[in-house]
Amino acid sequence: MPPRTRGGYTSDAPRRRPTGSERRRRVHLREVDPVPDPDPVEHPQHDRDETEEVFEGAPGGPIDRSILRSFHKHVAAKIWLGEDRAPLKLVNHGAKLQLWELDMERSRIYETVHRSGLAPLTSCSHRVASRPMLSAFCERWQPETTTFHMPFGEMTITLDDVASILHIPVTGSMISFPQPLRVDDANALLVELLGTTDVEASRETEQCRSPSVRLVWLRDHFSTITDASSDDDIMFATRAFLLHLVGCTLFADKSATSVAVVYLELFRDLSMVGSYAWGAACLAYLYRQLTTATKFEVRQLGGYLTLLQAWIYEHFPEMFSSPDMAYIESRPRALRWRPHVIPDSLQSVRERLDRLQISEVCWEPYVDHRAEHPLPDIAWYSGCLKCGQVVEPYHPERVLRQFGYIQTIPPRPFTPPRPDRSILLEQYWERWTDHVLTDQSRGRRCHYSGSGESVPEYMAWYDRISHRIVQPPQLRSGFTTDARSSLPSHAASTSDTRAARALTLLRLVISGGREQSVDVFWGALNDAHGILAGSDETSASHSTPSPAPASHSTPSPATLPFFSPATFVYPPAASDDPPPLIVPPPPASVAPPAASGPPPPLIVPPPPASVAPPAASGPPPPLIVPPPPTSVAPPAPALDSTASTTVYVRAKRKKKT
Description:
The protein is mainly α. It contains 19 helices and 11 strands. The chain has helices at residues 20-31, 75-80, 107-116, 131-138, 159-166, 183-194, 198-208, 215-222, 231-248, 278-293, 305-315, 346-354, 422-430, 439-442, 458-465, 481-486, 494-511, 518-532, 537-540; strands at residues 89-90, 141-142, 147-150, 153-155, 212-214, 258-260, 300-301, 383-387, 390-394, 581-583, 645-647. The strands form 5 sheets. It has a 3-stranded antiparallel beta sheet with strand order 2-3-4, with no helix packed on it. Helix 3 (107-116) packs across helix 9, helix 5 (159-166) crosses helix 10 (278-293) and helix 8 (215-222) packs antiparallel against helix 9.
């Protein structure tokens, strides 16, 4: 046997120089994580001892780590420990689709695209995507459960959401490839299915440095083909258009400029394109992209972001959405919304989601859409979704409230099989009707439509296994330790800190738009008042404010750091009685006698007879008192020089003469 060298290679075997990524990986393992975790994200359970020590780095993290085993690697754990991540860079090709449109001169290409079931993608893609909003939801995605962990429970994108938002098929053959495509195989596939030369194919894959082609290359070579071209050219252009379409939508990768050639194999037989479960493959691909984005070092998000953004608009309409009033229900639900970039920062969106109440969620947004697009039975399928080498679990039993059922404690999430076991996965998928949730597994329907009910023990269980709050309390409102230390001394005072918190709170509510209820605005104003109530410590030491009535007392700032519907303090009802009249005390030179009881009513002497009262030219005087008796002089009133005297007199309006 040949001797082995220090690097582990045999002496007669050629040594390969490590690439830059391998060297960086070695440095990362040596400096950051000296003990590699043998448990990857794709296998979250049944591989470790159940007595594993609980991760104590994030007090807001899960107490019971039997579900979220990889949470110590999650971006939410880093945020809780004080590290922050900028908004993700989004890969969105909505504008590129308009660079290659099918008009009347390309009707033969459009007919094939329409039969494939992918035609809605040409019109429903959003051109704009909101980075803070999508980044904040990525921070709540948990790979083990493939769900968003919200403050009140789990939510996810279901096959029903895909079918309603995009109107593409969610049933059919599973999209599967035997093995990853090599560059030589990609060149051969381009020559065979797109009619390019071997030189052109090799040049393009070399420029991409992978078995991929650029989107602009597809447009430049095939967008000029019309119905007047030959049948072969039209067939090549149709395949190129479909590859360009799925590369801009369903399978948008983080290269942001190219698409994998392996998807071209799906368009070999154009008559079979409509037989694939495109919606299921799109959902599996998006699940994997969200899972990758939960790592702290990742700075980019791929996948079909129109699906993710429209799902947020549908289920959280009061927070982020802007509806299109011209929408009709026969069109995909993605066209119901006008995409826009919200003006809030990533931190403000985190705090809004941390304060989110269950009543602010639209659990069943497609009620009006059911006449045109009923609930597909495959939405109840519980198993795995597959897209090539990507395999992700699908758990509708964890989000029963999105189907109108009372949420129960779900079973443990299962570990998906390896992608190389494609035959078993395809057989499982083909018999999906045998793997839907039974009526017993679904449980009982909610008492009221869209109420989002759950069993009483659900929230106690959810508190133990989840990370409900992303933004740590000590870092809310944008005041981190570095930011506070960089401020001047006068700006770091308690009063200015409270003012900044109040302004941040009001800014969050104002950014919510005018569609919010009056209670939301009043609650935010009341909370801001509570924050500012004790801000001026200097003035508080010189004057003692009078205590407010107990029934209308303002909560302390410590109890109202942010808006909560349960902490409304409404103002007192308006009264018809006039306010009391405050009369100043007599001069200090007059020593008043000791008061033995309540002071007698104040008697004001009438004006001299020689002085005529002025003509009434405006509102009457506020006080009219009859003259005293002429026989007995009234004694001097006993007044306390240190206190004011209150006289309750109802003003009488005098008629004009």
